[in-house]
Amino acid sequence: MKKTFLAAAFAATVALALSGPAAAQDRGGTLKFARYDGSKLIDPIYAERNPDIWMVGSLFSTLLERKGEGAALTGALASTYTQSADGKTIELTLRDGIRFSDGSPLTAQDVVFSLDRARNKDLSPWAGLLASIATVTGEGAKVTITLSRPDPTILSMLATFNTAIVSRAAFEKAPGATDQEKSAALFAAGGPGAGTGPFYLSGFEQGASMSFKANPYYWKSGADGKPLPYLDGVEFQIIPDDATRILKLQAGEVDIAEFIPFARIAELGTDPDLKMELFPSTRIIYAPINTRATRADGTPNPLADKRVRQALNYATNKEALVSLVLHGAGAPMTSPLMSSSTPMAVRTDPLYGYDPVKAMELMQAAGFAAGTKIKLTTLAGSADDATVFAALQQMWTAVGVELVAEQVDSPTRGAKNRSGEFDIHTYGWVDDIADPSQVVGWLGHTPTAKAVGTGWENKEFNELYDTAAAEMDPERRAAQFRRMQEIYAEEAPLLFMYETPFAVALSAKVTGYVQTPLGANVFEEASLQR
């Protein structure tokens, strides 16, 4: 698949997301969706796995939202909002007439309850994203949030899954002695009441199936002027096997199948009964490089020299990787710290373009000894990782590297990353929030995650990140993130590989379904043509 086709597909998908469905949208019917993995707990504050996070928006609404990729924030449950000049006070007015899916009215106290849960570090793994909040108060339709310090990300946080609003009454009457027990009981029982999203959870069988029913009190209207959603419901089948998901779609047993293998995209794109969508994503695939002076066994680490890391990037034909692994359905990374879909991404094309001559010059300048062994740690059983290893082994031979493979399971790879017991290993990322602070903190800020476990540390980078965390001027903040990307590209603590779309195959009768760049599955404007 050519890059021009990919770009056109991306543009068409963004246009779909921004323009919404056509006015002739059909109503009714139950959409059947084949998932690669099942949800365990779709509670805004506890959702930690992608299969949980990506479903939150179907059941719960947030105070603010974004209409499409790069779009400005707008009111959702809040009809209006203002932020004080010093950035430390946010006042919101709740939209009139909002009801939970059981018909009970949304109140300011539900907002206070939900945000206090979300920022409780003893409950939520995402509480750190709301660390700037000092108090949340509400009276009538008014909600006031005060901050302990200016926080340029806080408005984006109010449009993020972890701050979705939960019914205080429904939660408090759920059985259980602790917050976790009540949350689990609500999820297991299903039924209307907990959220204000377009659907409510109506059925659940761990690891096998899940079902949503339309919320009769949903606050948004469709193109026909009637309340959304168009569908009566959504039924999810959990089918981990790629081939089985596709077979069920082709047989008409499901209407949508997610995570289509890239090798099947061209084939499915020619099927007249199907639509093959490549939704733009924030998913990047990269390889952390151990930059410590010595390896875990105490021997000198040749990768500590940035010239060697730069050389490995120049010696890697990223376009070839995209062709081999993604079958053309992707593109090389253009920002060293984030996807091109992430706000404030600086797009450098090419970012370390393929240049084996320059790579060899850098290796020689660094005194790299030909035949030096470097270990690439990959996931056992991953066809993509196996392809990446085979390609890199061949490419890097030309610059004197003897690349050897170490295959491990995912928990072992994570443990090696945290301990520094690796040379290079495969990894990936999808943004959870529409702001660069999360991914940049993970990949480059030393206190956050030891620069994604690489051991890389840069004083200027860390200071820029800390300054940007309180910078309220958008232009100055963008300049700070631009400089961080320049530093990171020069230092090359990663092998910068590629970014991928979300590949989803749909029945031709499905319209209006969208998967956002953050991965969320959006069904509120989906419909089935009769």
Report on this model:
The chain has 18 helices and 22 strands. Helix 10 packs antiparallel against helix 12, helix 11 (318-326) runs antiparallel to helix 13 and helix 17 (459-468) runs antiparallel to helix 18 (474-491). Helix content is 31%, strand content 22%. The strands form six sheets. Strands 1, 8, 9, 10, 11, 12, 13, 17 and 18 form a nine-stranded mixed beta sheet that branches. It has three domains: 60-168, Alpha-Beta Complex (Dipeptide-binding Protein, domain 1); 170-281 and 502-528, D-Maltodextrin-Binding Protein, domain 2 (3-Layer(aba) Sandwich); 283-499, Roll (Dipeptide-binding Protein, domain 3). It is an alpha+beta fold. The model is unreliable at 1-23 (pLDDT under 50). The protein is globular, with a radius of gyration of 24 Å. The longest helix is centred in the last third of the chain and has 18 residues, at 474-491. It has helices spanning 3-19, 50-53, 56-59, 108-118, 154-157, 168-173, 179-189, 242-250, 265-269, 306-314, 318-326, 356-366, 383-397, 410-419, 437-444, 446-449, 459-468, 474-491, and strands at 30-35, 64-66, 73-75, 78-83, 89-94, 133-139, 142-147, 199-205, 209-214, 233-238, 256-257, 274-288, 331-332, 372-379, 401-408, 424-425, 427-429, 494-507, 510-511, 514-515, 521-522, 527-528.
The global form is globular
CATH architectural group of the largest domain: Roll
State the CATH topology of the largest domain: Dipeptide-binding Protein, domain 3
Q: Would you state the CATH class of the largest domain?
A: Alpha Beta
Helix/strand/pairing category: alpha+beta
Provide mean pLDDT, rounded: 93
Query: Number of helix segments?
Result: 18
- Name of the CATH superfamily of the largest domain: Dipeptide-binding Protein, Domain 3
How many β-strands, per DSSP? 22
* Beta-strand share of residues: 15-25%
Summarize the main sheet: 9 strands, mixed
Binned, the helix content reads 25-40%
Q: Please, how many domains?
A: 3
Radius of gyration: 24 Å
Distance between the termini: 32 Å
| Low-confidence spans | 1-23
Organism: Pannonibacter tanglangensis
Protein name: ABC transporter substrate-binding protein
Subcellular location: Periplasm
GO molecular function: peptide transmembrane transporter activity
